[in-house]
Amino acid sequence: MTPTPPFGPPLLGPLLIHLRLARGWSQRRTAAELCAAAGVPTLSRHEVSRWERQVRVPGDFWLRWLAVVLAVPGLRPQRRRRRAVQDQDRA
Predict the structure, then answer these.
(1) CA distance 31 to 19
(2) Are 69 and 33 in contact (CB under 8 A)?
(3) CB 34 within 8 A of CB 62
(4) Which is the most buried residue in 19, 27, 42, 66, by most CB within 10 A?
(5) Nearest partner of 80 among 15, 1, 29, 36, judged by Cα
């Protein structure tokens, strides 16, 4: 029997992928949009990929800019981070 997924907010990685693809953006374009909005030229597509694969969890700074750039006002930094870390601990 396959266990059912827990209820709650979706995982951040798949959510970022969905939002990015809904805009028709590449990871490179997403990184460029984030850099332009935040005024920080150091983010690359590699970091976006790491977030999407949940290898890393974006910090509060980048979560706020992700919410702005991807137009997701309800993106809550602490809540999303805890959920991603909990799921990684279970793996």
Answers:
(1) 13
(2) yes
(3) yes
(4) 66
(5) 15
